[in-house]
Amino acid sequence: MTTRKPLSPIDIQSNEFRRVVRGYDREEVRLFLQAVAESYQALTLENHKLIQEVENLKAGLDDFKRRENVLRDALYTAQKMSDEIKAQAQREAQCTVQEAHVKAEGLHQQAQLRAHQVERNILDLKIERENLVLALGDLSNRVRSLLETIVEAKAKENVTSFTKENA
Hints:
167 residues, mainly alpha, rod-shaped
C-alpha cells in the first residue's frame, strides 16, 4: 500500500471519480475512502494528542498559578513580618533612646550636684584658708609682741642686773 499525504477538505470535495459502465470505479472509490479514513484516523489521533497536551498544559498552568499564589502569600507574609520587625525595632529604639535620655538626665543631675558640692567645698576651704591666714597673722603678731616683751624684759633684766652689779 502506498502512503499518501493527508487529505484536506478541499481534496475531499474536489476529488472526481471515473465513470464506468455501472457508475464509479469501485476500486478507486474504495482507495479514496480508505485514504479519507486514514486521514481522519490520523486527525483523530492528533486531536486526542493535542487534547491531552492542552490538558497537561492546563494542569501545568494550574500548578504554576498555585505556586504563584503560594509565592504571593509568602511574599505578603514576609513583607508583613518585615514591617512588624521594623516597627518593633523602632519601638525598641525609641524606648532605648528614652531610657538613655532619662539616664543621661540623672547623670547630669548627679554631676551638677557633685559640682555644687565641690564648689561649696572650695568655698569652705577658701574661708578656712582665710581664717587660717588671719589666725597665723594674729599668732604672728602675738609672737612678735611676745618676743618684743621678752626682749624688753630681758633688756630690763640686763639693765637691772647691771645696775645691781655696779652698785
